[in-house]
Write a structure and sequence with these properties.
Rossmann fold, Helicase, Ruva Protein, domain 3, 3 domains, elongated, disordered N terminus
């Protein structure tokens, strides 16, 4: 159970039959819980709004407001009232023999479970335990999701290869130096760019990302430098480009090896003069931007083949950072798997699953051509398809 409960939960029993109310109250109070009672749905709703309950039991057939209407109103309160006291409280419906179909409908509406009359002592205790543990798990998952989201991009690992990258980031981030990040697809080049920006004096400014490979060559100049209304078909209004949007912050040019030569020429001018010109305009606009670039290509080879400007390469390659492939740092896999498992379980809203030592060793024998991105996908697949303890057999079956 949730550690704040100390073995005691706050329960609410809503039933118009005094005998049922008293029986449930005695059973659950004997288990060490604090138990309140209400005679009908209307009174129960008022109590649930005023006090944070950990579990509610509600009869279905009641005067004034029956259990189905109560359930609907509580679900509505969860959505519309930000500080609704019993926002995360599971609800167990109590049903007579003839109300099974109604009880099933209640489950579809959000009820946690239902109990059939006459009430069975063991079923009451098991349902209570499971419902409270479910509430605890949801709360823990919610907190984990917040912690994971708050951390932002992370560079996970303690290998010599990734430690060298981390050291360079720490040294270069506070400077204004341009950085060229290289490495195979999926190694985390964008994470490096984020960490540099976050560690810089520009961290309060924007970080604007451009995937040069995803933008058609005829549109890349407009995307980077903006355009004026009427400068080409579809230019229905003036538009600022990525350089202007990143003013005062950082511009990350991902996959810069795929940029057209014409766009490279304009990027070179922007870096040399700290100014850009929108497409369709002859007015220069001053920009204050730190440029980070990344590529999975061998730019020396691209220069030799005439696909990349050598002078632009030297402008960008002030500080080179080569991000290692995962196959070059297999010793980091245990930490990466642990990190991804926490992240994915939080995103999925499920209990944290663990990887046995055999599973980790099996993952370390794989050929990770897709690098960190591939590993994360495999961890997610295992979490979805395997049990709570992930084994070497699971890895061999699903990885």
């Amino acid at each position: 159970m949730h550690p704040n409960w100390n073995g005691m939960a706050k329960l609410l029993i809503i039933d118009d039959e005094r005998g049922i109310r008293n029986t449930l109250r005695e059973i659950l109070a004997d288990e060490g819980h604090e138990v309140d009672v209400a005679e009908n749905g209307k009174q129960g709703l008022e109590m649930a709004q005023a006090k944070a309950y950990d579990l509610i039991f509600s009869d279905i057939k009641m005067p004034e407001m029956d259990g189905m209407e109560l359930l609907a109103k509580i679900e509505d309160c969860r959505l519309k009232i930000e500080d609704f006291a019993s926002a995360e409280c599971p609800i167990v419906m109590i049903s007579g023999h003839g109300d099974v179909e109604t009880a099933v409908q209640a489950l579809k509406m959000g009820a946690y479970d239902f109990l059939l009359k006459p009430l069975d002592l063991n079923r009451i205790l098991i349902t209570t335990k499971n419902a409270l543990e479910s509430k605890s798990l949801k709360q823990e998952t919610k907190q984990l999701r917040k912690r994971v989201a708050a951390k932002g991009p992370q560079m996970i690992g303690e290998s010599a290869a990734i430690t060298r990258v981390r050291d360079i980031i720490n040294k270069v981030a506070p400077t204004e130096a341009r950085v060229l990040i290289t490495g195979p697809n999926g190694t985390g080049k964008e994470v490096v760019a984020h960490l540099i920006h976050e560690g810089s004096n520009r961290s309060n400014g924007p970080l604007v990302e451009v995937n040069c490979a995803a933008i058609p060559s005829e549109l890349i100049e407009s995307e980077l430098f903006g355009h004026m209304k009427g400068s080409f078909t579809g230019a229905v209004k003036d538009r600022a480009g990525k350089f202007e949007q990143a003013d005062g912050g950082t511009l990350f040019l991902d996959e810069i090896g795929d940029m057209s030569l014409a766009a490279q020429t304009k990027v070179l001018r922007a870096l040399q003069e700290s100014e850009i010109t929108r497409v369709g305009s002859d007015k220069a606009i001053k920009v204050n931007v730190r440029v980070l670039a990344a590529t999975n290509k061998n730019l020396a080879k691209e220069i030799a083949e005439g696909n990349f400007r050598e002078d632009l390469f030297h402008r960008l390659n002030v500080i080179p950072i080569a991000v290692p492939a995962l196959n070059e740092r297999l010793e980091d896999i245990p930490l990466l798997v642990s990190y991804f498992a926490q992240q994915i379980c939080a995103e999925q809203g499920i209990a944290l699953k663990t990887f046995e030592d055999g599973a980790i060793k099996a993952l370390q024998t794989k050929d990770w051509t897709g690098n960190i991105r591939q590993l994360r996908n495999v961890v997610e697949r295992l979490i979805i398809l395997a049990g709570s303890q992930i084994t070497a057999e699971d890895v061999n079956l699903y990885a």
